[in-house]
């Protein structure tokens, strides 16, 4: 993934963790700033960041409160947020995701895991901005076509989301089966074709963006 010119803000009251993340992310080519509190983060030009790594349990303003303010502001609402926190209860995770967070990583964590999550979120957000008016929201299992919400059956949704997350990539039928269907479930090639046809019809006029390579598989092309 090309990390050049990608700006990340790390907001965490643990200095060792904050500076450690900065070091590793800068080694990967990211441009990184940090803040020890939500209050300090607000003194920065937040709109310029492409992603925020955000602790939940901080000083006077918690990470969830900070995220809530960002999501209510039109200028910052689209900035993806990944929570980094020691709070690992399901209720905490649900609350964070409902606020609009894009991911949730529990401390302690492996830096490789953080890097992989960052890449996935940035790739997904980039896809959502570029994919011709078609957006898939995995949290809501909902697709949006030119501003109109469309709910797809689970398998169709997963196929379309997979395409949008990797534009230009052609997936073989075998890859689609492995990624979308549970293990040990036998799926006929014809079933893939039927699902593709249904997706194309439901996301019209963007059905043509789902391309096929004869005898191989399918993918998305902007």
Q: What do these coordinates show?
A:
This protein is an alpha/beta fold and 222 residues long. Helices cover 41% and strands 21% of the residues. It has a five-stranded parallel β-sheet with strand order 2-1-3-4-5, with helices on both faces. The longest helix has 20 residues, at 111-130. The model has no long low-confidence stretch (mean pLDDT 83).
List keywords for this structure.
about 220 residues, alpha/beta, five-stranded parallel β-sheet, three-stranded antiparallel β-sheet, 8 helices, elongated
Strand order of the largest sheet: 2-1-3-4-5
Distance between the termini: 19 Å
Q: How much is the average pLDDT? A: 83
Q: Give me the secondary-structure category.
A: alpha/beta
Shape: elongated
The total of beta strands comes to 11
- Number of helices, counting only DSSP H or I runs of 4 residues or more: 8
Fraction in helix: 40-55%
How much β-strand is present in the residues? Answer: 15-25%
Rg from Cα? 19 Å
Low-pLDDT stretches are: none
Query: What's the story with the biggest beta sheet?
Result: 5 strands, parallel
Q: How do the helices and strands follow one another from N- to C-terminus?
A: EHEHEHEHEHEEEHEHHEE
